[in-house]
Amino acid sequence: MIYRVRHTTSYVYGRPVELAAHVLHLTPRDCPGQKLLWTSLECEPTPVRRQTGTDHFGNRIVWLFHETPHSRFDIVALSEVDVQFPEPPPVHMTASWEEIAVLAASDPDVSEFLFDGPMCAASPRVGAYVAQSFPPGRSVLEGLLDLNERVFREFRFSSGVTSLRTTPEEVLERREGVCQDFTHLILSGLRWLGLPARYTSGYIRTRPSPGQKRRLGADVSHAWVGVWLGPEYGWIGLDPTNGIVVRNEHVILGWGRDYSDISPVRGLILGGSGDTLRVGVDLVPVEEWEQDPSLRALGAFPAKIPVD
Amino acid sequence: MSGTIPIDEMVDGQGGVRPQWRHLLSILSELGHADLLGRRQQIALALSDQTGILSSPSPLSGLISADEKTPEGPVGVVCDPIPLILKNEEFAALEKGVIQRARLLESLLRDIYGERSVLRDHLLPPALVWGNQGFLRGGNPDGGEAAGHFISCYAVDLVREPDGCWRVLADRVDRGNGIGLAIENRRQMARAIPEIFSSQPLRRLGSFLDRWQDGIQRPGSGESTNPSVALLTPGPASPHWGEHVILARELGCSLVETADLTVREGQLWLKTVRGLRRIDVLFIRQGGGSIDPLELDSVGPGGVSGLLDAARSGSVRLINDPRSGFAEALGLAPFLPRLTGWFLGEDPLLETIETVWLGDPETESFRERLLGPAGEQDGGHADRWVITSALGSDRTVQRLSILDDAKKAQLAEKVRHAPWRYVAYREPLASLSPTVGESAIVPRPIVLRLFAIQEDDGWTVLPGGVARVFESGEPVTVEPIRVVQTTKDVWVTVDEHVTQRGSSLVAHRPLAIRRDQADLPSRAADDFFWLGRYLEQIESGARLLHVTLAHIAGPDPSPRERADLEVLMRQMQATGIIHRVSMPGYGMSNIARNLAGTGSPDGYFARTLRKIIRLGPELADRLTQDVRDYLIHRANAILESFVRHGRSGDPTKTLDHLFSGANDLLVYSATLSGFVAENMVRSGGRQFLDLGRRIERASSVLLDCASVLDQPDVHQRGRMEGALRLMLELGDSVITYRSRYFSVVQPAPVLDLLLLDEDNPRGVGFQLTALRDSLAALVSDSPSVPAAQQAASRELAAAAEAIRVTLADLVNMVISADNQDAAAASLPAAIREAQRAVMSLSEQIGRCYFSVLNSPRLVGIGNDATIDDSMVGS
Question: Which residues form the DUF403 domain (chain B) (predicted)?
Fold first, then answer.
């Protein structure tokens, strides 16, 4: 499936920002099951310095540096991505979770995702919750699918009740939150058990309700868990917010140990105050995009901020 | 390991003194113990002067507070007068080992941040890489990053164990403090105890330093042919501040804090009073993980945003690469021997002290024996095992021998859950070296720190170092140097067959010509400006007090004396020298009582002196030693005598003490002015110190004049004459006036002298002219100063001139008035207005040059809930 994704970020600052430096994770990366076809990233005002590269995890990043006072900051990232993540193997084909833990511990790359990130520490309480899905000897995929299903069923999606500072233990307590909360929860528990897991940042396709017109910019950034099934099957994505395995409705931006490794727009600004931020995402199959006049009218720039 | 008795560096175990110590020992015994103690104190004081760190914790007393462990001993940096002597051949062996170790760590870092073949080939467990706190996850720009060394400056702690073998206790890569101390110890030793240097020829440190400096100054990949260097310190609160001050001076570079730096257009700049100055090489003396908030794991806004981007592009060289901290993790130790073979194809020359990584499943039974209940484990030596982090920066140690069962069980649980986080090492029995104790020379355990630097053509080891002295029975640990620790100079002997000339004959590459590019950082300019203001506050306050005391006329003053005293007391109150006039009347005893609070520890002068003393360390690297000495020590002495004599029941005594105190303060201020005029180059710090003084003096003369003219009946001839005389006294211009006008006192000439005359250094006209010219000159002579800064500077000069013109109008109005007395009496409001304009000028100078910017904010990682909640939605 080929998607076009347009991600707009607009800051309006109460007072002018004098100096700003940003690291952007807004360009989808290549990985098994996903290929970036083309991409563009534009911003206003024009930065004094712009540098592209990859971060430690191999995700695409863009550095932007601004040095003249400005009261607005708009970024539009537009990409086309071909995604078709393979179907996971039958559950009985994957090794037991204990074997996977041993394999992961000695794998030169996978082992990194056994360790805590700055925002999300492995927790015994969350570990105990997650462990219920992993009785001794159970195939790792069986356990993971069970866990994904449990979180989907037992936790309520509720925005506004948590923030990025909410810990996995608090989420476990409240039984509600948003996608990054469920993701952090599962990361924390799996790592406690010695299973590797990575925070995956990206987008999920949404469809307008039947009879409704598509609202521009109504999609959002999304997050889910990357889990490892051993050297043979590699990584797959589990989306606990929707209780599904990632196949062809998701687009990956990149991954890290937790949110802080892969924050879409991380910056350091001098000045400003009373800032407001608007984010808009459109993730639509290319053919559909080309047939929708309002999407076609969007173009790359300037950022058209969706009206709520 | 053989034996459990530590080696003695001086005696050979058979009762004999090792040959390299013999001569030194005989010189020491000739000196005698009391003399040695004196020398130690002398060195300690010299060291604290060098670093600006006060040798006494309280500015109110030169004595050491009572709760110090050794009340007679020096506090702060202490250098034992007896050096540690290393024989030439012994050092040569260590040198090879240190270089090999440094090469190994450099190769390891290159691999870890590159291919990570150590993981693919299972030479290092993943936990020690991914969990390593020094492993920094920075970005990689397309097109690759500028090539450079990871480690340019390496320090290593070594202990000699009972088998006679030196082993590595810890590698210091992230910061590697101590080279400055090694150099300064040697210098102070040579001054304080020159006799012992005749005992034998030893390797000198100078050529190492030259070579280092030369290497740092070597042009980088940038176009700059004369690189400018800065040393980044966490600031005077850092325990290593003294080291940073010394090192910055030795390397001839600016000492800066993160707030002084900014990255623009991918280059690093120092914020100076002349605008931004490019920095080509940055010595980093703060933790690598907090160096760039834009990347890395840091969650706070500390550090310099964009610094890593600048470094990767090659526009600035970082020493060391902040990522080098990886190599400090103690968990690496057990794997280094194999890595030496893998990377270098060599056998390791230096061992590490016995260290076990507890994450290795094969060490489980060992771990259980260690952490189990106390008993007979391990042949009785289990109590020397220590547990600490395997992963880096946190070097807190848990000595198993001193843990009670409950604490041990707690630790065991933590370790069992994540054994990979921990190492156990066997506490070494460090060798003993003779040290000056309180009553005799005593053997004390020592840890030797050696230093190596890397240039393009290889590594060089400092032929010397720092030895840290531990208390008898105190364990030597891997923890960093403590704030207060005795150190030793380290001597490397010269082989008798090779003369000292031999070493100086080593051919050096020609040194690059260096030019001091010491542009004053804005922060330092701010400090100098305030130093100037405080000094002038002291002076004008002391003069006011002095004049007041001179006016005290006995028990029953005349109406005229009374009027003068009233003005003076009012002015003292306005200045804050006295709080309130508690006893009405102007008899001597009442005045004495009203003035008694002046000398109190929280009085005006004490507070101002303390502010001056507090600036001392901040400015330590920019003042000559004479100025620093006087600035701090003399201020301390005056404070002390103030406090001692301040309150006395006898009014005559009180007044006497205040009189001599006021004199001391006037001399203090005048002496410093002299020192500054003779010792400091005109530009830079001194210019701002002058600006501060000019501002403050203009303000205080204006206030004095306004205050004196602001009294009832002043328009009457008799009263006006008294007021004008008082004005001249306060303005220290009596003699100048008399030489021009003899004894006739009239308003116009007095006001002209005090407010307008550009030649009277005590008058306002002089101050404003000087301010105007100084502000105009501040930036005009440099083509690289940004236009905005130049314009702002010209504006400030114009503001100073405007105040001067206003005053000229006032004085001219008095000159041309029919009744000068009446005209002068109408001036106070206008003069106060001018004083406010001077204060506003001061604020504008602050805004223009000291640019106190708001601190930056980190967005996008959850610090700002309202923003971030909308970042991720579903």
Answer: 520-850
Inform me whether the pLDDT recorded for A305 exceeds 50: no
Cβ separation of B122 and A106 shorter than 8 Å? yes
Q: Cα–Cα distance between B353 and B333 in angstroms, integer?
A: 9
| CB-based contacts of B746, cutoff 8 Å, min separation 6 | B724, B820
Q: How far from A46 is each of A67, A70, A242, CA to CA, in Å?
A: 10, 10, 38
When CB atoms are compared, the residue of B122, B263, B870 closest to A277 is: B870
Q: Which of A51, A271, A278 sits opposite B309 (nearest CB)?
A: A51
pTM: 0.81
Sort out which chain A residues have CB atoms less than 8 A from B299's CB and list them. Answer: 118, 260
- Residue A109 with chain B: CB contacts under 8 Å: 119
Do A101 and A246 have their domain in common? yes
Nearest CA-CA distance, residue B136 and chain A, Å = 9
Q: What is the CATH number of the domain that holds A222?
A: 3.10.620.30
Q: How many domains does chain A have?
A: 2
Same domain, A208 and A271: no
Res B243: pLDDT: 83
**pLDDT tens profile B738-758:** 999 888 899 999 999 999 999
Is the minimum CB–CB distance between B413 and chain A shorter than 8 Å? no
C-beta atoms surrounding B205 within 10 Å: 22
A250 and A102 in a common domain? yes
Q: Which of A125, A124, A144 is nearest to A133 (CA)?
A: A144
- Domain extent for A290: 2-83+262-296
Residues A157 and A268 grouped into a single domain: no
Domain B522-680 coded CATH 2.60.40: no
Element at B645 (helix H, strand E)? helix B635-645
Among all chains, which residue has been given the structure tokens 């080696």?
A: B7
Q: Which 309-328 residues of chain B touch chain A by CB within 8 A? A: 309, 313
Q: What part of B 225-284 touches A (C-beta under 8 Å)?
A: 262-266
Please tell me which of the candidates A19, A241, A279 has its beta carbon nearest to residue B871. A279
Task: Delimit the domains of chain B by residue range.
Answer: 23-353+428-497, 522-680, 682-851
ipTM at complex level:
0.92
Q: Is pLDDT above 60 for B75? A: no
Report if residue A134 sits inside a domain: yes
Q: Are residues A166 and A53 in the same domain?
A: no
